[in-house]
Amino acid sequence: MEETTDASAAMQQQPLMRMKVMVAIDDSEESFVALKWVLDNLYGIAGAVPEAGMLTMVHVQEPFQQYFFPAGPGPATFYGGAFTVVESVRKAKEEMAAALLARALQMCKDKMVKAETLIVEGDPKDKICELAEQMHIDLLVVGSRGLGKIKRAFLGSVSDYCAHHAVCPIVIVKPPKQHNK
Q: Where is the chain membrane-spanning (predicted)?
């Protein structure tokens, strides 16, 4: 008879339907591919009760770096113009985040899966791992942009960072291969 490991015993005690799953959503199509994978493979299981498990979709906004450049002569122009630009950028970022999460929520609604959304500010790779730990997430799912080694070295990879630093199991969903030859 085969021995059961601690991990498999834990999975038997906590059915898949009761898992707390987090999906990172950003403005890339790959994050929506990851969400679709979750909806099709975890919540699309025959007999699964969608509302039994918790699905959290998180969007991390990078902090706005404020750079002040004079818009014209005199201090009033400098400060007034900068404030207007900062507020415009903040509002645009909030609207973009709301639109992304509305699209993600609609995908969940189409599959009859209840989900919650969360918007936080910070470095995406750090915040995703912090939230996964704080919220006691059972499974973290992120999309992969499929960066090559050189781009990944210079730009960094959120999925690679999470794979090495998240305290829970992680699934990295690769983008579908393009068959254009």
A: none
